[in-house]
Write a structure and sequence with these properties.
It contains twelve helices and 15 strands. Helix content is 31%, strand content 19%. The protein is of the alpha/beta class. The N terminus is likely disordered. Helix 6 runs antiparallel to helix 7.
Length: 338
């Protein structure tokens, strides 16, 4: 029997028979135990996962999955598991071109790019074996269903570990090892360890090949908000991407994934670059107009020089698009006259 190590802050996967012995270790180091990759999948299941403080059981590799949020849908597509998705919802934008063909036949639970997660009735009508959610709020009584209730109905739930809110589970800070750890864990859940290992190796290689901008540029990661901007703070995906791209986050001192950040603070910081999150409901173009229209922000160096970098919303949350986001940010920085 083989034991796969997991990073210290990652949730862990263990055989059902030993879950009680290890649940007390939640938030610390963990392991995934199973047969060799060429062994029968039935010998590795059921597994139980301590996921954001909720112990969920996966009795067998799921064949019917509902994904909520772009990050989870794209994770399964990147692993070649798109045929397991019986419904997807709460998409934050189009999938990248490389996954477009695989996504073409994935049915929607609700309209793409909706503001709301699907309700439990719509989800249960699809008879899923697993709900894979990008946020903990996607699996509540007000959305797809309370996790305990769903478990009682035979529906397992798994939340992206990067989205865990409990301090014992939230990555602090989020790193690419955490992102790659989720890929590996999803591979374990679906008995797709080889595909997960290949994807992680590919992404590690791509990340290592990126040459970060070395000019010491400062940046504000502007996601949304008018009167008060909502920006990337010091421990989430925006910080991880900016670090890898060579940018110093002017809101990096805020110990959170995202934060409200007064315009006065942004103006005082006067960043060299503003990273604009492009979302259907709040486009990068609209943010540029807002910055230029506001008398205070219009005087910021980055606004006067139009020193903008644009990142699509789905790439701003932990997932398979983060490495490409770093490369894209670096490429755009190289095009700016700074």
């Amino acid at each position: 029997m083989r034991t796969l190590s997991r990073a210290a802050l990652r949730p862990f996967v263990v055989p059902a028979a030993t879950v009680l012995a290890v649940t007390a270790l939640a938030g610390c180091s963990g392991t995934a135990t199973g047969m060799d990759d060429d062994g029968p999948a039935s010998d590795t299941f059921p597994v139980r996962i301590d996921n954001c403080g909720f112990v969920t059981e996966i009795p067998a590799p799921p064949e019917r999955v509902v994904t909520i949020k772009s990050s989870t849908t794209e994770m399964l597509l990147a692993l070649g598991l798109g045929d397991r998705i019986v419904g997807t919802a709460f998409l934050d934008g189009p999938v990248p071109d490389a996954l477009a063909q695989a996504a073409a036949d994935v049915p929607a639970v609700a309209e793409p790019m909706t503001d709301e997660a699907p309700g439990s009735e719509a989800v249960l009508d699809l008879e899923p074996e697993l709900i894979y959610a990008g946020w903990e709020s996607n699996v509540t009584a007000e959305t797809a269903g309370d996790r305990d209730t769903l478990a009682g109905l035979g529906v397992a739930t798994y939340v992206s570990p990067a989205a865990c809110k409990d301090p014992g589970y939230m990555p602090d800070p989020l790193t690419f090892d955490d992102v790659f750890g989720e890929i590996e864990q999803v591979g374990t859940i679906f008995a797709a360890e080889d595909a997960a290992a290949d994807l992680v190796a590919e992404q590690r290689s791509a990340l290592e090949a990126i040459e970060a901008d070395d000019r010491g540029l400062t940046a504000l990661w502007y996601s949304s908000g008018d009167d008060v901007p909502y920006v990337g703070a010091g421990i989430g995906a925006p910080q991880m991407i900016m670090d890898a791209a060579g940018l110093e986050n002017v809101a990096g001192g805020v110990h959170d994934t995202w934060t409200s950040f007064a315009w006065e603070e942004a103006v005082a910081a006067d960043p060299d670059v503003i990273v604009l999150v492009d979302a259907a409901w709040n486009t990068a173009a609209a943010k540029m107009e807002r910055l230029a229209r506001n008398p205070a922000t219009a005087e910021m160096t980055a606004v006067r020089n139009e020193s903008y970098v644009v990142v699509p919303f789905p790439a701003t949350e932990a997932g398979v698009r983060n490495v490409d986001a770093v490369a894209d940010v670096v490429d755009q920085l190289g095009e700016l006259d700074l």
